[in-house]
Amino acid sequence: MEDKSKSKNRREFIQSGVRLSLALALGSVSGLALSKVVKDDYVWQIDPFECTQCGRCATDCIMSPSAVKCVHAYDLCGYCDLCGGYFKPDANALSTAAENQLCPTAAIERKFIEEPYFEYIINEDLCIGCAKCVEGCTSFGNGSLHLQIIHDICLNCNECSIARVCPSDAIKRVKASEAYHIKGDFSKNPES
Amino acid sequence: MKKLKYIFFIFYLLTFTLPVLAQQQRFPKPEFESGYVQPSTQTPEPRALSLEYFDVLVLLVVLSLATWLAIKKRSRQGILWLSVFTLIYFGFYRNGCICSIGAIQNVALSFADPTYAISLTALLFFILPLAFTLFFGRTFCAGACPLGAIQDVVIIKPISLPKWLNKTLGLIPYIYLSLAVLFAATGTDFIICRYDPFVGIFRMDAKFHMVVLGISFLLMGMFVARPYCRFFCPYSVLLNWMSRFSKWHLSITPAACIQCKLCTNSCPFDAIDYPTNEKEVLKSGLGPKRFLVYALLIPLWIAAGVLVGKQSHTWLSKANPDVYLAELLISNPEIKNDPDNIDVQTFLASGKTMETLVQEAEILRGKFYIGSMIAGGFLGLVIGMTLLNTVVFRKRQDYVPHKGNCFSCGRCMDYCPVEK
Ligand code: SF4
Ligand code: SF4
Ligand code: SF4
Ligand code: SF4
């Protein structure tokens, strides 16, 4: 009997020793990580100046349709009649017929404001984030149309599945308090 | 030196690209006469930070409840309802993200990448379950893990697997963990999140092959209980370690075991250890000699692991998109003319030189070289220890849960006839 309790004691001693060291390990891992921890949470966002409009935003988001949508930075827009983001470059007649529109889902609404200006509004429910209009606007216009991850749709995946495949590494973790990079408010600033 | 280069690069960028960007305002903004007011760009806020902290609070409450139910209240019913709650809250409502399993990668990345700061929520999701497990056993698995919960509710007719199979398949989580940490630390990929089989079900939306994977896991889970938890989950490795040394682990009987054997088949996960049959131990002839041999083999296993890691690092590093691209361009230069290869075309258009790309790829490969060797050595150690464990016999008089493997689900408690 004595022997048994002795070996039991020994086992318990070893157990609590290991437990203590595991607790210490856990503590130091958290301590080390804690030294770098940020209170602010992270979200994913596209740097519009780095995006090369490859089109993967439409296909690689875990949401379908994608959480990436085109946004319009109206401050930069020229309100052009002949919008490079709205019309196909080879559109034969400048009618707003669907076959002349760049957007595959006709998500851009064109509204006459005053001669000769037109306003372009993105219908987010239709936009699939394919970046076709962005490409058009960037190459022929002011680049006021650009992609952003819209945060009431985005699930904030631990690793954004588009970021992983973005060929220009345009998608990065940003602070949740500055969750958007809208062109005009946001310029490519060198410290970041 | 690298820093200097970087600064030059930024300088270059500033002086040459900014004017280009400024030029982009090709058409000036009109001055409207009709009093038109431009709409504002909609930027819906992300989920509030306070809600993220609320999730941590929920986790804490669920963990405490699960612990209390398993150890004090001894109620399987309670645990079941708790896991249903977890399934609904962390699974379907929170879409299976954030989760403690995936948080391993955030922790690994935060150690490897000085520019990445882990968020407090992710860190707490990683630490809290481990801390609880260290004292109370894997009550996290019982009630607080959405992945565990979804598998737990589909168990219909669990079959018992032979011991050797359990042990062999039980090595997979170690491999998974090593790879996950390796890929996360090199900034390559978060494979745990990417191949989470149930996240598609929680979100009710996923790529086809992930849906197939999720459903097949659930189908398999009807007969092989909790297959992901037992044979894949990388977090289970850490939980297992913690749980083995837990202070107050769930026990099958509330008082003393009377050897009635009623609980022997109650565990769907083969996690109940039987009393040692001394006669059989003697007969099997597994004596100290075997032990010595296996113990001496461990360094060999580690060496073999390191070697395998070393050999496979090139192959593993191809999972990194930068390394892959560099390799592709070197081995297959004609690909530059392929207009459909988006990655190559983007690289060519980016103005980045081949040299920088190769340099970056080489640094990454260096990380993989070291990382794969560590991972290999670790796996070698694990294999060696597992083998050693097969010849170690701990004296057991009673039917007890295997502290490492037991999920503290509480099923076995209902089978024990002993009253308090
Ligand atoms: S994947 Fe990257 S480059 Fe392609 S459209 Fe999205 S942000 Fe732009
Ligand atoms: S072209 Fe593509 S990105 Fe632009 S509005 Fe249409 S769907 Fe959205
Ligand atoms: S974080 Fe997830 S939901 Fe959001 S844009 Fe990326 S893949 Fe889509
Ligand atoms: S609590 Fe009992 S039934 Fe549940 S996993 Fe542990 S040993 Fe098996």
UniProtKB/TrEMBL annotation, chain A:
Residues 42-61, 118-137, 145-176 form the 4Fe-4S ferredoxin-type domain. PROSITE patterns: 4FE4S_FER_2 (PS51379), TAT (PS51318). Gene3D superfamilies: 3.30.70.20. This is Ferredoxin. It comes from Mariniphaga sediminis. The lineage of its organism: Bacteria, Pseudomonadati, Bacteroidota, Bacteroidia, Marinilabiliales.
UniProtKB/TrEMBL annotation, chain B:
GO terms for molecular function: 4 iron, 4 sulfur cluster binding; metal ion binding. Residues 248-277, 397-420 form the 4Fe-4S ferredoxin-type domain. PROSITE patterns: 4FE4S_FER_1, 4FE4S_FER_2. One of its GO terms (cellular component) is plasma membrane. Pfam families: Fer4 (PF00037), Fer4_5 (PF12801). Keywords: 4Fe-4S, Electron transport, Iron, Iron-sulfur, Membrane, Metal-binding, Transmembrane, Transmembrane helix, Transport. The keyword Iron applies. InterPro entries: 4Fe4S_Fe-S-bd, 4Fe4S_Fe_S_CS, Electron_Trans/Redox. The keyword 4Fe-4S applies. The chain crosses the membrane at residues 53-71, 78-104, 116-137, 169-188, 208-225, 291-309, 368-393. This is 4Fe-4S binding protein. It comes from Mariniphaga sediminis.
